[in-house]
Design brief:
This protein is of the alpha/beta class. The chain has one domain: Alanine racemase (TIM Barrel, Alpha-Beta Barrel). The chain contains nine helices and eight strands. It is globular, with a radius of gyration of 17 Å. Bound molecules: pyridoxal-5'-phosphate. The site of pyridoxal-5'-phosphate has 13 residues, from strand 8 and helix 9.
C-alpha cells in the first residue's frame, strides 16, 4: 500500500493524539505521560521521515534486517525501537540497529544483547516482554518467569531496563485486553517494589485497544495502521 501524503499523515497523527488525550481525561491522567510510537514496519523509510517531521520521538519496527536497511536509508534523526520477536542469533544486528529493544523475553537473549552492547561500547535500553494475557500464540516471558528475567537483566552491565511490554491476545471480548493490561501493570508494580527498580515504561495498547491500555497505565501506545494505512505484507 502507498503511504498517505504528509498532510494526511499529520491529520491521522493528530487524531491519534486526540484519542490518547480523551482516554487520559477519562481516567484523570496527563496525556504527556502517554507516548505515540509510530509503527513503520512494512512501510518505506519515508514513513519514519513523516514521524520525525511531525515531532514524534521514535518509530517501531518488528524485523531486524528490515529496520537496519530502512534506518540506513533514512536521513532524519529519530529513535528506532524493536517491537517484534528477536532471535538470539540476530542480537548483534539488533543492538547495532535499535535505540531500544522492547521484545526481550528470555535470559539467553538478555545475555546475547548485553554482550553485543558491550562490544559496541553502548548501554542498550530494553523492555521485558511479558505474555500478560497468557496467549499461546504470542511471544513474551510467562508472568511467573518475569522476576527471574528482571533479576538477570539488572545484573548485566550493558543493558538498562526501562520497563515492560505486552501484546494483548486477539479477542472479541474487550475484557480480555483490559485484563491483560491490568495484569502487566500489577506485575510491574510488584517487580518495581521488590527490586527497587522504577520500570517506568509500560508499552501496551495498539490501534484497537489503546483506551483500555491507557486506563491501566500505559506509557506508550504502538500505532501503525491508523497512521500509515493498511499493510500489504
Ligand atoms: C504491528 C504492531 C503494532 C501496530 O499494529 P497496528 O494494528 O498496525 O496499529 C503494535 N505492536 C506490535 C508489537 C506490532 O507488531
Amino acid at each position: 500500500m502507498a503511504l498517505p501524503d504528509y498532510a494526511e499523515f499529520c491529520r491521522r497523527a493528530d487524531a491519534a493524539r486526540a484519542r490518547i488525550a480523551a482516554a487520559c481525561t477519562r481516567v484523570g491522567r496527563d496525556p504527556a505521560g502517554v507516548e505515540l510510537l509510530a509503527v513503520t514496519k512494512t512501510h518505506p523509510a519515508a514513513a519514519a521521515e513523516y514521524a520525525a517531521r511531525h515531532g514524534l520521538r521514535a518509530v517501531g519496527e518488528n524485523r531486524v534486517q528490515e529496520a537496519a536497511t530502512k534506518r540506513a536509508a533514512c536521513p532524519v534523526v529519530i529513535a528506532w525501537e524493536l517491537i517484534g520477536h528477536l532471535q538470539s542469533n540476530k542480537a548483534r544486528l539488533a543492538a547495532e540497529t535499535f535505540d531500544r529493544v522492547q521484545s526481550v523475553d528470555s535470559v539467553k537473549l538478555l545475555r546475547h544483547l548485553d554482550r553485543a552492547a558491550a562490544d559496541l561500547g553502548k548501554i542498550l535500553p530494553v523492555l521485558l516482554q511479558i505474555n500478560a494475557g497468557r496467549d499461546p500464540a504470542k511471544f513474551g516471558a510467562e508472568p511467573a518467569d518475569a522476576a527471574a528475567l528482571l533479576e538477570t537483566a539488572l545484573g548485566l552491565p550493558s543493558l538498562r531496563v526501562d520497563g515492560l511490554m505486552t501484546i494483548a491476545p486477539l479477542s472479541d471480548d474487550p475484557d480480555t485486553a483490559r485484563r491483560t493490561f491490568e495484569n502487566l501493570r500489577a506485575i510491574r508494580d510488584d517487580l518495581a517494589a521488590r527490586f527497587g527498580a522504577p520500570l517506568r515504561e509500560l508499552s501496551m495498547g495498539m490501534s484497537g485497544d489503546m483506551d483500555a491500555a491507557i486506563a491501566a497505565g500505559s506509557t506508550m501506545v504502538r500505532v501503525g495502521t491508523a497512521l500509515f494505512g493498511a499493510r500489504s505484507a
